[in-house]
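quick one, 375 residues, struct below
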Amino acid sequence: MKVLTVFGTRPEAIKMAPLVKRLQLEEGIESVLCVTAQHREMLDQVLALFELVPDYDLNIMKQNQTISQITSNVIMGLEEVYKKERPDIVLVHGDTTTTFAAALAAFYQQIRIGHVEAGLRTYDKYSPYPEEMNRVLTGHLSDLHFAPTERNRKNLLAEGIADSHIFVTGNTVIDALLEVAGKPYEFEEETLRSIDFENKRLITVTCHRRENLGENMVHIFSAIRDIAEEFTDTEIVYPVHLNPKVRETAGAILGNSSRVHLIEPLQYQPFVNLMAKSYLIITDSGGMQEEAPSLGKPVLVVRKETERPEAVEAGTVKLAGVSRETIYKMAKELLANKGVYDRMARAVNPYGDGHACERIVKALKQYGEESNNQN
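---
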């Protein structure tokens, strides 16, 4: 059975790397890896960390490329790869533009598609944008659906996906996180080496989503500045996204705050270790809502909605929105009220046990056997 895996961004690479490694070791499976390099430098860092060498690299990244350009370049590039390899199934992940375009290109070649991290929904097609429609459309192109949670399975069932094509596996990001967190590591970044982790409470911040650009980001960063000014026992670290608009806003609002450290984006291994040393995480990232609870870290999500409501229900995540006052109030409660903090820190992560890749490979092999019997 030939399985061709496609991804193009850092988050996809992190979540798919342990799966690709598992596929490469599995008897009866020929694993082929193609990267689009929708991200370039950040993607390469993850490939190096997990010691993965792509069989194909489309290298599509260009400065200021539009979503339309990414989509068309991925489709055109993968057309030749698919024709040459003729895989039994193409695996894609999540909700990036690479994901949707790769699935569409496979559909055009009448190749079956497996969707890893299937069934996440906000039911607002413009938030997150374009991710919500990327994952919806990919879901309806796919033949196999690897859903992290039971709620994700129910979302797919409600959209008419056959139950026999859905497998609840947990999220592969937990597999990746536990693998990396288990390795010894010391920070190389100068700012991180200077922080007194023993006597200061570290708050890690990430913020980059398109829907937060502009006024929302001003509110978020202003709340973070307020927190830094009031709680003198905190240090705030923000690895600033490469988007120039994000950097401009972060510099203007947070650049002069003595306890806020604006640093360059981190590779995955130091970032996992930064999360592990954190007291609290403030983020608009989807992946961190899944990862941080495995490390016992409460998460405030600075978005108006989340496609990961399981984390909110489990108590590992709180939805803080984008209001300066609300973000500040919720962060203050966690910093000032040990009982509230401990309830979040000790809640059970609903996203898995680190064996998602094992379950996905088992489902793929079962699918391959069934296909052979039908033929």
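The chain has a mean pLDDT of 95.
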